[in-house]
């Protein structure tokens, strides 16, 4: 019987548990013996395996985070570290590994694949920067959390006639910020892909005030050269008149927590089953993601070193609608 292990790596994302559950149950259904690895690649280096049966992954489909734990492992990024990982897999007689995670984690998966170890990646990161998937597991939940925060902030902003700089996660990718801004009706959106100066933000706030708005919300991606705090500092230093009192809200890790949406649970479940299906067919070295609305496998060779391109037409859309 084939022994297959699954791990979650990098920043946790809502829906990872649903993916673990699907991998384990589909794997057992296919006749595999299933194992989990605690704490991502860091746990792999320590040989932190645990046997998983259908009951061990019960009651987790709705839970955020990851029951296996996650970590970022600098040691695994070295060639020596990866060889230790291979030794641990061999000791445990594991014949294939499923890696649930974002771009750094899939780079690691690619390195293992290059060492001839059978690996399947499952795309999961709130940043949505991973090549080979239109939507990674966790993005929809993070987006909805940011949107809810924005809706809440607007009510207090309008009541007090204030402007808010709302900082959204996403590392160096503007996807979450841009989609939050469009879906939430922001006055301006700043993303790392296209530089927005503090002067432009000040102008957008002042214009909104001139047009009679009682509030103004700017969504700022954390990866921008001018993040929310820098913009606020700039306004203070230059005594910018924006027509509103200013407040800063940094959403941060709040976006990664909580209950995964139906979309993320379904995407995670379908991806987990597809990962096992690849192994059943004797295939590996691929990333499971969503392409043209369908679950699809992309070779890890193509994924490594690439970034999911952000469609900048959406930035124009955000501008046009912020009148
Ligand atoms: O990659 C997911 C992410 O949440 C990014 O959006 C963010 O920049 C980073 O992880 C934060 O990392 P950490 O959880 O290690 O603070």
Structure description:
The protein has 323 residues and is an alpha/beta fold. The protein folds into two domains: 3-138 and 260-303, Rossmann fold (3-Layer(aba) Sandwich), CATH 3.40.50.450; 141-256, Rossmann fold. 41% of the residues lie in helices and 19% in strands. The protein contains eleven helices and eleven strands. The strands form two sheets. A seven-stranded mixed beta sheet has the order 3-2-1-4-5-10-11, with helices on both faces. Helix 4 (103-114) links the parallel strand 4 (96-101) and strand 5 (119-123). Helix 1 runs parallel beside helix 9 (262-280) and helix 5 (139-160) packs across helix 6 (175-184). The longest helix has 22 residues, at 139-160. The chain starts with a strand and ends with a helix. The structure holds 6-O-phosphono-beta-D-fructofuranose. 6-O-phosphono-beta-D-fructofuranose binds at residues 11, 102, 125-127, 169-171, 222, 256.
| Quaternary state of the chains | single chain
Q: pLDDT average, as an integer?
A: 97
Round the Cα radius of gyration to an integer and report it. 22 Å
Summed up, the domain count is: 2
Enter the CATH topology name of the largest domain.
Rossmann fold
In sequence order, what are the helices and strands, one letter per element?
EHEHEHEHEHEHEHEHEHEEHH
- Biggest sheet architecture: 7 strands, mixed
Shape: elongated
- Let me know the number of strands: 11
Q: Count of DSSP helices?
A: 11
Q: Order the strands across the largest sheet as they lie in space.
A: 3-2-1-4-5-10-11
Q: Which CATH architecture of the largest domain would you pick? A: 3-Layer(aba) Sandwich
Distance between the termini: 62 Å
Structural class: alpha/beta
Helical proportion, percent range: 40-55%
């Amino acid at each position: 019987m084939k022994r297959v292990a699954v791990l979650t790596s990098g920043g946790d994302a809502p829906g990872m548990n649903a993916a673990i559950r699907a991998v384990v149950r589909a794997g057992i259904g296919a006749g595999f013996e299933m194992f989990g690895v605690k704490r991502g690649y860091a746990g792999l280096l320590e040989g932190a395996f645990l046997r998983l049966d259908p009951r061990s992954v019960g009651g987790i489909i709705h839970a955020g985070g990851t029951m296996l734990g996650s970590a970022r492992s600098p040691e695994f990024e070295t060639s020596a570290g990866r060889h230790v990982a291979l030794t641990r897999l061999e000791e445990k007689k594991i014949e294939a590994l499923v890696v649930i995670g974002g771009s750094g984690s899939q780079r690691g998966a690619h390195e293992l694949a290059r060492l001839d170890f059978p690996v399947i990646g499952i795309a999961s990161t709130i940043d949505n920067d991973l090549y080979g998937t239109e939507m990674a597991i966790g993005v929809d939940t993070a987006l909805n959390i940011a949107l809810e925060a924005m809706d809440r902030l607007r009510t207090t902003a309008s009541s007090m006639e204030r402007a808010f700089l709302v900082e959204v996660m996403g590392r160096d990718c503007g996807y979450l910020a841009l989609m939050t801004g469009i879906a939430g009706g922001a006055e301006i959106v700043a993303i790392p892909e296209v530089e927005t100066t503090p002067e432009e933000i000040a102008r957008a706030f002042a214009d909104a005030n001139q047009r009679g708005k009682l509030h103004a919300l700017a969504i700022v991606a954390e990866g921008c050269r001018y993040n929310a705090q820098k913009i606020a500092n700039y306004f203070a230093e230059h005594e910018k008149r924006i027509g509103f009192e200013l407040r800063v809200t940094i959403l941060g890790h709040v976006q990664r927590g909580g209950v995964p949406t139906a979309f993320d649970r379904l995407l995670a479940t379908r991806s987990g089953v597809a990962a096992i299906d690849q192994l059943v067919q004797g295939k590996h070295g691929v990333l499971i993601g969503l392409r043209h609305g369908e679950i699809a496998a992309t070779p890890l060779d193509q994924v490594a070193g690439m970034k999911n391109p952000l469609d900048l037409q959406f930035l124009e859309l955000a501008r046009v609608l912020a009148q």
